[in-house]
Sequence to fold (464 residues):
Amino acid sequence: MSRARELIDTILIGRREGEALYRRAFVVSAFGGITDKLLENKKSGEPGVYGLFAQADNEHGWMDALSEVGRAMREINAAMFDDAGDRNAADDFVRERIEGARGCLIDLQRLCSYGHFQLVEHMQTIRELLSALGEAHSAHNLTLLLRRHRVDARFVDLTGWRDETQPSLDERILNAFSDIDLERELPIVTGYAQCREGLMREFDRGYSEVTFATIAALTGAREAIIHKEFHLSSADPRLVGEDKVRKIGRTNYDVADQLSNMGMEAIHPKAAKKLRQAGVPLRVANAFEPEDPGTLIDAEPARSAGVEMVTGLPITSLELFEQDMVGVKGYDAAILDVLTRHRVRIVAKASNANTIVHHVDATLKAIRRVERDLGERYPAARVTARRTAIVAVIGRELGGLDVMLRGLAALKEEGIVPISALETGRGVDVQFVVRGEEKDTAVRALHRTFVESDTAREELADAA
Fold:
């Protein structure tokens, strides 16, 4: 969305004229960095408006942060619109939403100063209210931009702004689309949808893909397309080189789930489930190469074995060792309870007689809290955490390729001794746990073996 003006010449309009402009709907996310300012920085965990409001140590902290969001949105408006009328309309929209949210938070803070009302009971609603501001801003801006280019675009606001009803997600979408003529109008839809299920409660910041998939399923779309700034490739081209990666071209939802687990979400797993059940294929395309078909994701298995992607994820390996664990039940359940309470995502796990290791994706603050809780529950145990990385070799069908053996040999040639290697036996991925600083080297080594080598090219050709 941060390159919206460029998209006019590619996926939004490009060479389309007349009827070809319509029979589509665009679901948009917030502009880059805006949701981080509204909630918290996704990578560093630095608090945004939501985090500062939750702390409530300094009232001016969250109010200043909200004003900063408004300023950042107006800067985007200034860069996006040449026409003064469009820019003023966009600024007025931002002012209404930001000040409306500010008034709501002030009133809530005042209400919760009385003992009968607890702020903690409303924090999830506040998170949804704030997050919705980003999607509403981007969808409204894109609608104005398309109208300036003589496209009959329609702003479809699913955020429930000043709406007193509590519909389900399906009801919210069906009501919004009930009077839209898809033959003559181009809906620009907010990625966030307010509904009684509470999208963020279950999906947190993956909600826009769930909205997107639900719209595709309910409208009987021929195809659902996710537009990115790059192709879905065999590895990160910035890491292994643009001349060495290859576009995947075709894969299935099983691989998409594995990519999601490795932090390379082609689509949220719950969104993929909606599309799969509705029989709607998914396409991941490069928004700036409109002539390229991208990668099709459907339910079809591979015709033969082949590696499709090599990717790595920085993680923390959390190890609990206790000599008396042997034959005693409950340790694993207790650890899972602590990880769940602190919202720590498990990427993989391993265990033996007296040791349980969870490889997790979490902030340092969350890990410290988990260590503290586990230490209190099991005072005789030794709980350690170290920064590591998982490097995964992924494909629809890996059977017969000896991925574990060949992968270990490739890592050995680079002088890398894996901490562990994991394989479920399903033939869709093999994971190697290495030291954190070895991640990039391991990805390059495995990519050379499974994608760039002559043997790999022959395997990929057979699997295509």
Summary: The two ends are 32 Å apart (CA to CA). The mean pLDDT is 90. The longest strand covers residues 309-321.
